[in-house]
Input
Amino acid sequence: MPGSLPSSGRFWDKPIEALTRDEWEALCDGCGKCCLHKLEDEDTGDVHHTNVACRLLDLSTGRCSDYRHRKAMVPDCLRLTPRLVRDVPWLPATCAYRLRADGQPLPAWHYLECGDREEVRRAGHSVIGKAISEVLAGPLEEHIVPEDFASGVRR
Output
């Protein structure tokens, strides 16, 4: 997660392949949806979304509590890259990485557009108040949610 914004103007409008690492990291809107567990049906390959968050997700901020060391603490945590983002089918439709990879603009509620990191929550696109930690959840199968929960549709 970015500490401070890069100072290269509206960098988020550039093609993702042209972004620096800091610019790429700054695209994250902090919704927390990518940190929710998913279940894949072994027979069909269908992905089922849950409201269960990785133990590192701070449910009050929607941000990783140890972003720098997350791979050491959660080995299966996926590090999104400009190349990989096009191959991850479960990213929500509102994900800035996905939007920019598809050449789409960021939504008006994205902090890079509006200047307010809390707008993602106010616009209904954050997991804040909607997720439970894996530490408390129990069986993931009991926490499957409708696809619109994870896809970016406002609830």
In short: The CA atoms of residues 28 and 96 lie 6 Å apart. Residues 11-151 form one domain. The chain has one domain: 11-151.
